[in-house]
């Protein structure tokens, strides 16, 4: 695969960049932090989306050095922001399962000086379920360090409820497919309400992904969602634009 060959060189050629998507608190419309989203500046193909290369990075094992770079870069950038802002980082299965994972996280925190409470890691159900025997102690170790754990794309998998019971997640990120239907689909609204109940029952922050309209935002506030993320509030942006947003110059 041509892309996997080029992916191998992308790190040392400095072709990766992190963009940051704002996360907003619904209680007071305040900025809570950002989710780091990787971008690959391919010399010929232009900007390659993570959906096109993360799976290749997983298959080839390149996700380990790439994931390490993401953690370091995200922590370094967030360390320069005001102290109330958090940074969320996505983890993939083989990155999480690699024996260097925990030391990589600790090194990223140490070298950046970012307090662990300001780092949030996002895992999907597939990360959790790949090896529950391994996932649980790892998640507990992260939590013990003070790092927050979010469950990503919630509601799209097969056994969402069982892993909620198995581990005390700090945040539930409801998949955007449920937000899209909130205005005219009774089923989506019912799920939104159920997730608010689950969040309060498990003492987890609820976050709605993919918020694109004012009506959706209003409805999520009414229903008591904790946080929101989506094009209405801001797309993923380069670090300089994120700073402008933070310091109110945009
Ligand atoms: O940013 P969008 O921007 O297109 O991201 C698409 C998908 O890629 C999302 O599911 C997101 O979780 C994943 N993704 C983005 N950045 C990273 C990353 O740094 N590591 C991993 N493992 N996944 C990422
Ligand atoms: O799977 P994960 O949630 O980590 O990835 C976030 C993905 O969702 C990214 O690809 C990002 O570009 C995309 N995204 C963020 N906000 C919106 C939105 O409001 N609408 C849509 N359709 N996609 C979004
Ligand atoms: Mn995510
Ligand atoms: Na998601």
What does this structure look like?
- This is Bifunctional diguanylate cyclase/phosphodiesterase.
- Residues 1-250 form the EAL domain.
- The chain is an alpha/beta fold.
- The chain has a single domain, classed as TIM Barrel, CATH 3.20.20.
- The protein has helices at 2-10, 50-60, 63-79, 93-97, 101-112, 125-129, 132-145, 160-166, 176-180, 186-201, 214-223, 239-246, and strands at residues 16-25, 31-42, 46-48, 86-90, 119-123, 148-154, 171-174, 205-208, 227-228.
- An eight-stranded mixed β-barrel has the order 1-2-4-5-6-7-8-9, surrounded by four helices.
- The chain binds guanosine-5'-monophosphate (G) (2 copies), manganese (II) ion (MN) and sodium ion.
- Manganese (II) ion (MN) binds at residues 35, 90, 122, 152.
Instruction: Find the structural class using helix and strand composition.
Output: alpha/beta
Give the ordered list of helices and strands. Answer: HEEEHHEHHEHHEHEHHEHEH
Side by side, the strands of the main sheet go 1-2-4-5-6-7-8-9
CATH superfamily: EAL domain
The distinct bound ligands, ions and cofactors come out as: guanosine-5'-monophosphate, manganese (II) ion, sodium ion
For this structure, the CATH topology is: TIM Barrel
SS summary, helix count: 12
The stretches of 5 or more residues where confidence is low (pLDDT under 50) are none
Shape type: globular
Distance between the termini: 42 Å
Average pLDDT metric: 94
* CATH C-level category: Alpha Beta
- Portion in helices: 40-55%
| Total individual domains | 1
Number of strands: 9
């Amino acid at each position: 695969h041509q892309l996997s060959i080029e992916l191998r060189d992308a790190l040392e050629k400095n072709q990766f960049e992190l963009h940051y998507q704002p996360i907003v608190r619904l209680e007071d419309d305040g900025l809570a932090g950002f989710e780091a989203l990787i971008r690959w500046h391919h010399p010929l193909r232009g900007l390659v989306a993570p959906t096109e290369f993360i799976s290749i990075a997983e298959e080839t094992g390149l996700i380990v050095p790439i994931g390490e770079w993401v953690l370091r870069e995200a922590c370094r950038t967030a360390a320069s922001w005001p102290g109330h802002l958090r940074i969320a980082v996505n983890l993939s299965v083989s990155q999480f399962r690699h024996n260097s994972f925990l030391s990589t996280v600790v090194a990223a925190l140490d070298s950046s000086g970012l307090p662990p409470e300001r780092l949030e890691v996002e895992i999907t159900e597939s990360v959790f379920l790949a090896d529950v025997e391994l996932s649980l102690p790892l998640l507990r170790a992260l939590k013990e360090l003070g790092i927050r754990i979010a469950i990503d794309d919630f509601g799209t998998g097969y056994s969402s409820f069982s892993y909620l019971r198995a581990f005390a997640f700090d945040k539930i990120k409801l998949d955007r497919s449920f937000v899209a239907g909130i205005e005219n689909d009774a089923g989506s609204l019912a799920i939104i309400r159920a997730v608010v109940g689950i969040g309060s029952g498990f003492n987890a922050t609820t976050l709605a992904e993919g918020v694109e309209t004012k009506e959706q935002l209003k409805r999520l506030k009414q229903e008591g969602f904790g946080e929101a993320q989506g094009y209405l509030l801001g797309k993923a942006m380069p670090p300089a634009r994120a700073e402008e947003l933070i310091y109110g110059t945009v």
